[in-house]
Amino acid sequence: MEGKLEDFEINAFNKLLALSGQSLDTISIGPAQMNPEVVRDLVNNGYIPKPENWDTDQTDVILEMLLDKEQAPTLGSGRFEQNLLTLWGKLVEWIFS
Questions:
Q1: What is the pLDDT of residues 22-50, one digit of tens each?
Q2: Which helix (H) or strand (E) holds 65?
């Protein structure tokens, strides 16, 4: 659960992003250059392991993962697997349609 200062910081940051027409979920950050929405999708669909505190504080967990250079290979390989399986599925669908 977020603290009051963290809530204020996130809300202020989101308001600044909204003024620019963006949201936190759409900005690519960190060594893996992914956005939080992609990381959330990777975890929720089982492409990367669910981190500790995932169920209680997803925003902080995602930001920590994105900013941690040691997590970049895990994030990158999860995204690669997701893309590969998606493309494979489309190819199979195309072949048998």
A1: 777 888 889 999 999 999 999 999 999 99
A2: helix 58-67
pTM of the predicted protein model = 0.77
**How many residues does this entry show for the chain?**
97
Buried b (16+ CB within 10 A) or exposed e, 71-91: bbebbeebbeebeeeeeeeee
- State how far the Cα of 69 lies from the Cα of 23, in Å rounded to an integer: 23
Domain ranges, residue 79: 4-95
Distances (CA, A) of 16 to 1, 5, 22, 42, 84: 22, 17, 9, 27, 35
> How many structural domains compose the chain?
1
